[in-house]
Amino acid sequence: MSDANAGEGHLRGMAVLPDWHGSGVAAKLLSAIETWLRSRACKRITLDTTVPLQAATRFYEKHGHHRSGKISDFFGLELVEYVKHFE
Question: Per the structure, how many domains does the chain have?
Fold first, then answer.
């Protein structure tokens, strides 16, 4: 979060080792960063994922993130922006 984007955070990347998939670790990591951002007056978080990462898409949607409508190019792959607003 920077002064130029006060109130907005961006999750640049997140991954969990395959052995930990389904363990709840990813949900705890996401919750921790969201809690941290809210504690700093963040009202909105964005993140990007590519279309082939369907498990990531389902994970983010399950945790309240929605497509913003913004799609960009990431080395030939569609990079889809997701957003979540905090209350």
Answer: 1
CB atoms within 10 A of CB 45: 22
Q: In whole angstroms, give the CA distance from residue 82 to residue 10.
A: 10
Digit-coded pLDDT (tens) for 43-63: 999 999 998 999 999 999 999
CATH number of the CATH domain containing 16: 3.40.630.30
Distances (CA, A) of 84 to 19, 45, 75: 28, 5, 25
Give the Cα separation of 82 and 6 in Å (integer): 18
Quickly tell me which residue has 């945790």 as its tokens.
63
Does this model's pTM top 0.70? My answer is yes
Domain extent, residue 39, equals 3-85
Length of the chain counted residue by residue? 87
